[in-house]
Write a structure and sequence with these properties.
Blueprint: H1 13-37, H2 43-72, H3 83-113, E1 118-120, E2 124-126, H4 134-168, H5 177-180
Antiparallel strand pairs: 1-2
Bound molecules: protoporphyrin IX containing FE (HEM) (2 copies).
């Protein structure tokens, strides 16, 4: 039997699916974003922007559902993890959650400033409440870019921390296994 919900020692299957699908989508999102940053205006760029907007709203929806799921479910405690590690990882996780919520909202606002529309999951158009403003759009494009760079830096730190737990200290505190191992009911 698979454990869908979390326990005191492991994330449940649903939380893991959220974590890994958002991680994959974020790699895609940052890759398309950085390509856009380096591209001249062209029909290809317009196409990539279209898919980037859709995947950005998918990430946003998944992160909201993930946080709701986290709020209403048991999540694992850090048993013996030293206090310093605990505090650092809580800060990094908080910043990751914050940026993954902030960037899509800011990206939506920026898109409206540029005079384009945004559809949630590519299905439902979100009514815009801002007027087109190209100067402000350019400023927001910079904010969008630098926020994505900060996000990339933090998730790189996060990935290295996870690898450190797995390979250097051999998962002494079971931080790796609670997000990676198979979920079986005991
Ligand atoms: C976590 C999610 C997101 C990340 C990491 C991200 C990242 C990026 C990056 C790095 C760029 C390149 C910026 C530049 O050209 O300097 C970009 C461009 C863009 N993003 Fe996002 N983005 C996200 C979500 C969104 C969302 C939800 C929308 C709108 C619905 C959006 C709309 C755009 C648009 C329209 C551009 C192209 C701007 C242009 O080149 O004129 N992004 N994104
Ligand atoms: C290959 C890439 C990744 C690996 C190996 C990885 C590994 C892990 C591991 C082992 C945990 C469990 C830590 C714990 O329970 O304290 C975790 C949790 C977490 N990861 Fe990742 N991760 C990756 C990508 C990402 C990305 C791209 C994000 C960006 C949003 C992210 C956000 C989080 C968050 C917020 C948590 C804490 C869960 C919570 O407290 O709700 N991870 N990750």
């Amino acid at each position: 039997m698979v454990n869908f919900k979390g326990t005191n020692t492991s994330w449940g299957l649903i939380a893991k699916i959220f974590h890994w699908s958002i991680a994959l989508l974020l790699f895609w999102q940052v890759t398309t974003g950085i390509s856009l940053h380096n591209m001249e205006f062209s029909p290809l760029k317009i196409g990539i922007i279209g898919s980037h907007k859709i995947s950005g709203t998918v990430i946003f929806t998944l992160i909201v559902l993930r946080l709701l799921w986290r709020f209403f479910n048991t999540h694992p405690e850090y048993k013996s993890l030293p206090k310093k590690h605990k505090i650092t990882s809580n800060i990094v996780h908080f910043i990751l959650y914050f940026l993954v919520i902030f960037i899509p909202i800011q990206g939506t606002y920026m898109t409206w400033l540029g005079g384009s529309d945004v559809s949630l999951l590519g299905l439902v158009e979100i009514p815009s409440f801002v007027d087109m403003d190209f100067i402000l759009y350019q400023k927001h494009l910079q904010i969008h870019y630098y926020s994505a760079i900060i996000l990339t830096s933090f998730f790189t730190v996060h990935i290295f921390a996870a690898l450190y737990h797995k390979f250097i200290i051999k998962d002494k505190y079971e931080v790796w296994s609670r997000m990676v191992s198979k979920n079986k009911k005991v």
